[in-house]
Amino acid sequence: MDNLATWFADQGNIFWTWVVLPVVVVLGVYLTVRSGVVQFRFIPEMFRTLTDRTPRDEDGEPQSVSAFQAFTISAASRVGTGNIAGVATAIAVGGPGAVFWMWLMAFIGAASAFAESTLAQLFKVRDPDGFRGGPAYYMQRGLKARWMGVVFAIILIICFPFSFSSLQANTIAASVGGVVESASGGEASGMIAWIVGIVVAALTALVVFGGVRRIASVTQAVVPLMALVYLLIGLAVVAVSWREIPGAISMIFTEAFGFSEVVGATFGYIVLTGIKRGMFSNEAGLGSAPNAGASAAVTHPVKQGLVQALGVYFDTFLVCTITAFIILTGVPDLGDAPVGVDLTQMALAGTLGDWSLTALAIIIFLLAFSSIIGNYYYGEASIEFISTRRGVLVGYRTLVVLAVLTGSVLSADVVWSFADAVMGFMAITNLVALALLSGLVFALLRDYTQQRREGRNPVFTRDRLPGVTGIDCWADELSVTGPIETMKRR
What we know:
This protein is mainly alpha-helical. It has helices spanning 2-34, 38-41, 43-50, 67-78, 85-94, 97-122, 135-142, 146-184, 191-208, 212-240, 245-254, 267-282, 289-293, 301-330, 341-352, 355-386, 390-409, 413-436, 438-453, 477-481, 483-489; strands at 125-127, 130-132.
């Protein structure tokens, strides 16, 4: 098994280094320039659209989940244990300078996140719960390539709801085991993992068999709480170690260019580590978040594109930065630092005391469980793209619950390495489609900007893109805004 994990890791690193990362960076820069740096110019709009009123149907009920609920679904997947273990790994192997490249990748990647979620909104379709969509849908409807959409959907299902959710469950079990060992002073029983696995699997079943609206309600409650708790921990660290914060910031910038690497990493390795870990964290351009973005009921596709770009900033500039400060102020000597969540635990315990290990275990549970729910929804949208048969969806939900249980008790090495490689193929498939359809993104952005300049709340209908086929929704203003809002506008 170790040899298999090593082989997957080696092949995945080669593929990401020489294929995926260059394409991601080049396309991100292209979208940034062509859009007039939309991810910077429209930051105020991002916050405004986050609280936009949800269009309602004739019965006065929301047409689907709100813009904020779609934001929390995507944030639930983005903000996971990678924000704790992933950032720690980046710093341990690439030095503090890797954080700078994570920040830069988040800024560039926000343009890709904007584009993919805007397209997902444009080509979304209706279902009994509201809307669904994502890269598979804009591949079929925008590029007329259903085969490409099916391939993408299969890769996403393997990667997110199965592999990554198993890893999240494994991390929950490991963190609980660590707390038990710390409290007892001995090795935790193997039954701990089984108990944690059964509990997490049961909670997952309660949510996923409740449908997308239950997913939205759960993540809407969990994600803000999760962010608040972790933010409070981070602020506590800053308050205790405030004298070290300027030095931590200085290390991030000076070591980003290899001037004084504390872990011996070369300049190229620092850059690649930061970019790769940043992409794993915020998922910009990977094609996962658009599945959540498509579910929102909004009056213009650009609105959800802006919301999902904000999600990238939330993940990297807030959550990942908190982790970086915890580590860099708590572990001044990174020469022999452990890799992964152990480094974050060491930093917290060194700054706040052993009680923080329990707090971190609670945070990891919130982060990981919300990621499991977000990952499930991505897979559900892909399953329904391939087949709408009820039995297929029930079977998928059952397999997700089993994957969570299995992941809690097995080693994560092979499944992580495998998912790492599969995720690269998923990114390339999505980025090719994104590049081919980018003209529609720029047209939608121009339409949105023009309406805002006219002092209007932008509303899109498909006749505003004449000649574009495959658009299922956006038939007229009444169907987009709902009868009440349409009457107000008139």
